[in-house]
Amino acid sequence: MINVKGLHKNFGYVEVLRGIDEEIAQGERVVIIGPSGSGKSTFLRCLNLLEFPTGGEIWFEGEEIASHNKGKKLNEHRQKMGMVFQHFNLFPHLTVEQNITLAPVTLKKAEKEAARTAARRLLERIGLDAWAEKYPATLSGGQKQRVAIVRALAMEPQVMLFDEPTSALDPEMVGEVLELIRELAAEGMTMVMVTHEMGFAREVGNRVLFMDEGIIVEQGEPEPFFSNPQSPRLQNFLAKVL
Amino acid sequence: MIDSISAVLYRNFIYSDRYLLWLRGVRASLSIAFFALLLGMAIGLLIAIVRVSHDSMAKPHILLWILNRIIKLYISIIRGIPMTVQLLIWSFVILAASRNQLLIGSLAFGINSGAYVAEVFRGGIVSVDKGQAEAGRSLGLSYPKTMTKIVLPQAIKNSLPAMGNEFINLFKLTSMAGMAAITEITHVGNILRGLTFDQSPLIFVCVFYLIIVLILEFLVGRLEKHLRKSDRPVVARQKRSVWDGFSR
Hints:
The complex is a heterodimer of chains A (242) and B (248). Chain A has 242 residues and is an alpha/beta fold. In chain A, 39% of the residues lie in helices and 25% in strands. Chain A is built from nine helices and ten strands. In chain A, a hairpin with a 2-residue loop joins strand 1 (2-11) and strand 2. Chain A is globular and about 55 Å long. Chain A starts with a strand and ends with a helix. Chain B has nine helices and no strands. Chain B is an all-alpha fold and 248 residues long. Chain B has a single domain (2-247), classed as MetI-like (MetI-like fold, Orthogonal Bundle), CATH 1.10.3720.10. Chain A binds chain B through residues 48, 50, 75-79, 81-83, 85, 87, 89-93, 102-103, 106-107, 135, 137-139, 148, 151-152, 155, and chain B through 129, 131-132, 134-142, 145, 149-150, 153-154, 157, 230-234.
């Protein structure tokens, strides 16, 4: 589904990604871990071209996308990839429902009424239908992130990208967000997730990537990956975080 | 003493219905400031959008580049020429054929104001968290749609109190419009000084400006407070002191 070949990304003189080759199949749940500054968020952001790669190719469903750094194609590609941010990034000037319907209505994916019905259904699903008319400032962190997730789902993406979705949450709110992501995983959603939740990575991911200094150092299925790490850098990292 | 006060009031307001002249002056000052603000906001918003878009792109489109150049020139000209001189040029050169005081005043002050309002709006746009635009783009919205639907509404809201202050500044700035024969408050004072043969009208000029500015400041304060409130969650709206939670 997604095929990354020799991906490079520089910020000025700093080389953040130094050649990533990776293939992600439909229905896979890939979890990326690694120390901060390892390039894992940048890799994720390259997948929907929030960052433009400086080198290499990204293929999505048989189309090379890294070269359209402009215009319609780019926006169409992003519609197929939902993104969830660490800091939620809900639109504070819109109600919860408007947050969800904005993109589908503006992009003429749905009529206004249909989009509203869909938004209500999504909100019911996360138990926040009573909050549809409220503004994001009135929600808790966990509620905000769950709204952000269904906002991305409203575009009916084929892939969901999660960039540390629980890192900005109070500990007692992490659970509700992970629960929703777990549900999406069970439904077979293809997802790529950067996280520090090792337990969750182990439980939900079917493949774990360890990134350090801009390359994928090691990867594998969660069980052997966590219980029997091969490279010293991963051993070292896991010793610190587990 | 009382005699002289009532005489002054009589000379300034009652005699040959001079209060009508004051009213005309107040109306002119306020309406010029108002229309100048509208024009200034329109120009300022346009400039701010062009500049932010231009600066955000590594290789801006040629049209955008040209627009940005024109804007830079406009800003240099406006900032380099004193407002008084600009006003005289509008009144006696560009619009010499027009007798429409409101038009001349609004154009002169509005086009001047645009250069300054642009900076306020630009600050407003830049102050909107980068994540907002990213969220919009990640949903597949184009740059212009992200700007108009997500960034600008927040930027304009953040800039509103500054617009209130710009209105107050414009209102005071109109006191020079008399030089272009526009009948605003100061000019009315000057006319009356000529008619009463004393300086008492100046007192009333001061009083009019002061009262109106105080009212406007009050309104801007209310607006600021209102905007701050709507940003915060319901719980935080209850009155709280910094000392809550500390034992005293």
